[in-house]
């Protein structure tokens, strides 16, 4: 059984998708130790409670430095014997301490076909670009913003009458299948 921690900052739909696949037996060798979030009011906390998971809320503003913030996270990860970190809408760059401790063992999913549209509002960037195709990318995390080695991508069309909400829903549907598949291949 491989122990993973999931980091999320928002609604947690990818977190829920992963948990659902575990519960359905589609990720039989994965155990999620807990949810880590940097947002005290994030909806992902409610989703974690549904699965009776511990939640670690760790706000950067409560620490003197990012190094202290990460030391606390590493302390929790170590005590839970976490082997992999899975970012699922976590909106903070991972710093050097965690990167060193989990080198090549941190995954992220991003709603674009990287290297296009890194960072925030990738879906809005894709819509504004005039592109006709976008999608989602799973990649290893490095010190940059969505710059790590690409593991797998899946694409979807951008239709002329798309609004951001429509496109976001189609990308989420792709992600909810893609991310668990990649976790299955890479981690177990």
Features:
7 strands, globular, alpha/beta, 37% helix, Rossmann fold, single chain, 188 residues
Explain what you see.
It holds the Pfam family Formyl_trans_N. N(1)-(5-phospho-beta-D-ribosyl)glycinamide binds at residues 12-14. Pathway: Purine metabolism; IMP biosynthesis via de novo pathway; N(2)-formyl-N(1)-(5-phospho-D-ribosyl)glycinamide from N(1)-(5-phospho-D-ribosyl)glycinamide (10-formyl THF route): step 1/1. The chain has helices spanning 13-23, 44-50, 66-79, 96-101, 122-129, 164-186, and strands spanning 2-8, 30-37, 54-57, 84-87, 106-110, 133-140, 150-157. Helix 4 (96-101) links the parallel strand 4 and strand 5 (106-110). It has six helices and seven strands, in the order βαβαβαβαβαββα. The protein has 188 residues and is of the alpha/beta class. The chain is globular and about 50 Å long. It has one domain: Rossmann fold. Helix 1 packs across helix 6. 37% of the residues lie in helices and 23% in strands. Strands 3-2-1-4-5-6-7 form a seven-stranded mixed sheet, with helices on both faces.
């Amino acid at each position: 059984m491989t122990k993973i921690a999931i980091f999320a900052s928002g609604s947690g739909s990818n977190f829920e998708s992963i948990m659902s696949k575990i519960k359905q037996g589609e990720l039989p060798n994965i155990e999620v130790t807990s949810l880590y979030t940097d947002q005290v009011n994030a909806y992902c906390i409610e989703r974690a409670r549904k699965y009776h998971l511990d939640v670690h809320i760790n706000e950067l503003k409560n620490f003197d430095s990012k190094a202290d913030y990460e030391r606390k996270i590493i302390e929790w990860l170590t005590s839970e014997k976490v082997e992999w970190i899975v970012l699922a809408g976590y909106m903070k760059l991972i710093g050097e301490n965690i990167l060193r401790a989990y080198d090549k063992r941190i995954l992220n999913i991003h709603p674009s076909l990287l290297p296009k549209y890194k960072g925030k509002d990738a879906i809005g960037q894709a819509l504004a670009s005039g592109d006709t195709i976008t999608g989602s990318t799973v990649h290893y995390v490095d010190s940059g913003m969505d710059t790590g080695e690409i593991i797998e991508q899946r694409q979807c069309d951008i239709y002329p009458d798309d609004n951001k909400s429509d496109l976001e829903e189609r990308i989420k549907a792709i992600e909810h299948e893609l991310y668990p598949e990649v976790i299955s291949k890479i981690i177990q």
